[in-house]
## 1
Amino acid sequence: MECYFCKQNIKEIDYKDVKTLKRFITGLGKIRPRKATGLCRFHQRKISQAIKRARHLGLLSPTSK
């Protein structure tokens, strides 16, 4: 499986793009592991950082509600 962001040639992950971030969150609100997402190590770190920023600012809820 190839990394989604490497395949799409996306350089930066925006924490304000909630639609993209929701792809990488489970139904319970947890960040999906690298094996499940198929991301490379670099982009998995960036996506988790973006999800945490979005949660902190209230763009994403910390739980599934």
## 2
Amino acid sequence: MGRPIFILASYLLVISCNNSVSHAQVANMKYKTIGTIERIDKALDNIISPNAQAEIIAEGFDWSEGPVWVESQKMLLFSDVPQNIVYKWTEEKGKEIYLTPSGYTDSMKRAGEMGSNGLLLDASGHLVLCQHGNRQVARMDAPIHDPKPKFISIANNYMGKKLNSPNDAVYNSGGELFFTDPPYGLEKQLQDPKKEISFQGVFKVKKNGEIILLTDTLTRPNGIAFFSGEKTLIVANSDPGKPWWYAFDLKNDALSNPRIFYKASGYDSTAKGLPDGLKIDKNGTVFATGPGGVWIFNKEGKLLGRIRLTAAASNCAFSPDQKTLYITNDMYVLRVKLK
């Protein structure tokens, strides 16, 4: 996404006459909005105000992904996967390049989705990246305030075979990492001759570094998140033939009771996007990117509404107080105020 696009003519006049714009002026400027809020259940009124809108806070990307808010720096980090760049956004300066290369560090040229995808912070505040091109989950070996393209691998193989292209990840409260491994970062995806694993897995990395396969039954595992209490895991499946969200019970190193949390099948065929990244708030409300925008469910899997968008949404992230939702939306990054 790029510099914010302002819609107040008076501020545009000020900018044209004076290249120096104060932080106070920037804060008072308004962003262009996009999309609509579709209210299916009245319970949504307790989550999103009736007058809420999706603001375009940045634009100009090839495919934005994997947002994470970093409170210590008051910045949003997110990936542009094809560009192999992590960008940052702040209220004061808008978008800036934060880290490049972000997901592919080899000198050999290649095409496809090679950059970082999902981003998250570990318990020590280090940046952790799902790296498509490097085919690993890795920790940036540099302080969050002084980024450098130096990485320490957390997971790069399963039983000696290289991973496909880790896509999204989440830590539990015990510091164990859970991640999905679809084929999107491989140049030819399922048909790529470099693909070493015959399945698309959901994995767990224990504190001692041991990598455990939790399931190999999903065709395109993508977004992943826990409900409060960490006894239930939700995984999005970004397969056009099975555009579903799955729920699993989690105990120790095993998943059980697999079930469909919600099916997006039959939704408007013109809507762009598939089940992708998701986040779950402290009340169990699920914000899941999918066909046509962001789908909002209660913890029982009842659809409450949608943030309807014309371009495909890929993932989302909360502010620390969960009163702001950030959405990566193809060439845009959006912000929606929540209750």
## 3
Amino acid sequence: MKQFIAAACLVLSAATANAVDIAISAQDAYNKVKQPEAKVLFIDVRDPVEIMFTGFTDMVTVNIPYLIVDRNVWDDKRGNYKPNYNQNFVAEVKAELAKRGWGPETEIITMCRSGSERGEPSADYLRDNGFVNARYVVNGFQGAAIKEGPQAGFRLQNGWQNSGLPWSMKMNKAKMYRVDK
């Protein structure tokens, strides 16, 4: 039994030895992807409608939603439309890697609005599906909400937007997830 446990630990150790930490700051993600020969797939995992109202950075490689809002189903508990998992998420990530001649060992960075509801879970999901170098941007695109004071509830700290990194309200049609393609 001890030999089995030791062997299992060795295999797990070897599998994770080459994997990068899962969390990355917005600034570090920017520094990686701005390199001319960067071999990083930077994915905005937000629903395109959300991007339309919160902004976009053209530094991302592509927009592939991890969750897609179903505008036909209302979630009474949350008081909004129900999001569904994008059943094609892994296949779409694989297709983007294949376009570039990259494999599953490629560093993949995901980014959502806050980093918690889609950013980290999408990176975990990618790791569970063989992409050992998947990561997510901590605090996401908009950052964390201020907890107290007159601006309580506004996302005005950390994240991509609040780090002085390039973004705009203009979406890049060539990078956006579209069902009409």
